[in-house]
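Model: Ready when you are.
Researcher: Fold this.
Model:
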Amino acid sequence: MSVPVIAIDGPSGSGKGTIARRVAEALGYHLLDSGALYRLTALSARKQGVQFDDEASLAELARALDVRFDSNSDGSERIWLDNEDVTLEIRRESTGEGASMVASIQSVREALLERQRGFEQAPGLVADGRDMGTHVFPSAAVKIFLTASAEERARRRHKQLKDKGIDVSLAALSRDIEDRDRRDTERSVAPLRPAEDARILDSSGLSIEAVTNTVLDWVAEL
């Protein structure tokens, strides 16, 4: 029997990571944070002094990532790279900017593709990213494109970073999100867009619980 996959795509700051974790927990499914893999590639490149225009070296880094995903006792994420806790580092805006750059490189995407598909295991998978429903899991049972206004996404991201002790200005975040949206939607390789059969969910003004319940209701329709 095929393994059910719930694909949740959307722009930066739309809340897809939080929703994916909650849905996976509710269903008892595995979780794939595909964006973390690109962030880890960018972070690894910076730590090793690899330039973002060195496509061959970046692809090699992507293939060789020593990554471990874990959780704290409260259910929050914990991510290890080369046995170093990089949970906070990969969520910094500078790392996100790097991830957006390396994600536009075909050889990097190819290096990470099979690793992402390897997460498809019983009893099921919730995969969040930017091309889960269009490219990585085109046969996903449920495809959701989660979005929100740029202003709302900037406010959410600002609060998230402040809660983690990371100081950043709201204005700078708004500019970064607009720039990242432009790069993600205009890139030639797997651009950010809803799958043709995706359900669009605008989370502006909605609580995390409301969005999670909507997704679970859609899954229950299977």
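Researcher: Now this one.
Model:
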Amino acid sequence: MNLVKNTLSEQIYQILRNDILTQAIPLGEKLTLKTMQERFGVSSTPIRDAFTRLTEDGLVNYYSNIGVNVIELNRDDLIELYQFMGDLDSLAITYSSHYADQTQVLSSLSESLAQAESFRETDTARWISCSDQFHLIFYDYCGNSRLKRAAEKQRSQLTIFSNLYETDIAVQQKIAGWHTRIYDSYRQGEIELAARQMKEHLEESLEYALKI
């Protein structure tokens, strides 16, 4: 595999992260320094750097000088994860409502919805990306870096499962419906309703994840 030397750790990180999020590397899989050196044809240093970043993302457990194990999530873990993300996303909605230029927030949300609709049933990967972006927009305008960092780590774990169940067209339709309702409530100034709808949306998504 040909890699650009000055961005080795970044490239390896992105490749492994994508492999975990798409489950090309399954939950619980052990990744050793030796096997990764053989795969990428590099020294251990950029691989250790990539492992460290994956650990920060909450996607692996890192054992120094040995390697990593991809996380494993049981039923209780999933319940905690989706409930917590529902709380964080709802809080991001509330914080975003205080952003000075609400026209900009609404424009970003509207554009995200339109893009998602254009890809639904035609390009699953890009639809999933737009679906995730709808949630992330609220963090872009929430004005709280700590909230955003907390959400980024948790969302990485959640994405492992959403990448699986969001390939279902019927599920895509239901998620699109939730996003539209949340947007409409937010646009009309019904912030508490939008926040509550976001939590309900994550509760339903939890059911999809549990089936997976």
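Researcher: Key takeaway?
Model: The chain has nine helices and three strands.
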